[in-house]
């Protein structure tokens, strides 16, 4: 297993349990679903990179396309402030909205630029590194 990739994937996904049970605010639930979908696509890429699943270029590029599409939903989903006790979103998101939106768009453009570039298993580490960096840039500031 490639340790760097495993670490990057962990950082990107976070270690918190993905428990949506008990989330009452439907806007919070909707934005969590967007993130969860992004996380699932990252796992598809991570599992291939680690050799847990067979390399499949089409599936990898499709995962990147899906991450780009879902990332385009981040800003619209968060724009109106919504709170829930189960949410991991930090209130400074709305005090520093432009910065948050810029970080969201970085994930989108990075995923979109990478989509279609995966032709060999060796491409996955670079893609995960670049993309994971954009997740981490936001999570480290705006997620508990
Ligand atoms: C612009 C900021 C931003 C970017 C970029 C971002 N995230 Fe998130 N992410 C958040 C915030 C904020 C939360 C917490 C949402 C909440 O609990 O209300 C979150 C939560 C999550 C969760 C937990 C969702 C759940 O089930 O509760 C996962 C998984 C996740 N992000 C994966 C990713 C991955 C993978 C990327 C990069 C491809 C990424 N995120 C990019 C801000 C971001």
From TrEMBL:
InterPro entries: Cyt_c/b562, Cyt_c_II, Cyt_c_prime. This is Cytochrome c556. GO terms for biological process: electron transport chain. GO terms for molecular function: electron transfer activity; heme binding; iron ion binding. PROSITE patterns: CYTCII (PS51009). The keyword S-adenosyl-L-methionine does not apply. GO terms for cellular component: periplasmic space. The keyword RNA-binding does not apply. Residues 1-21 form the signal peptide. Binds 1 heme group per subunit. It comes from Tropicibacter naphthalenivorans.
């Amino acid at each position: 297993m490639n340790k760097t990739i495993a670490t990057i994937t962990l950082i990107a996904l976070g270690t918190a349990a993905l428990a949506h049970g008990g989330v009452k605010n439907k806007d919070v639930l909707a934005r969590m679903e967007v993130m969860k979908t992004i996380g699932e696509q990252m796992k598809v890429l991570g599992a291939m990179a680690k050799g847990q699943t067979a390399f499949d270029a089409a599936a990898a590029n499709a995962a990147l396309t899906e991450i780009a599409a879902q990332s385009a939903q981040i800003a619209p989903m968060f724009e109106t402030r919504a709170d829930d006790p189960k949410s991991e979103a930090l209130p400074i998101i709305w005090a520093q909205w432009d910065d948050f939106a810029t970080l969201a768009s970085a994930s989108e453009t990075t995923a979109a630029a990478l989509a279609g570039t995966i032709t060999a298993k060796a491409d996955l580490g670079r893609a995960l590194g670049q993309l994971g960096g954009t997740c981490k840039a936001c999570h480290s500031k705006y997620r508990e």
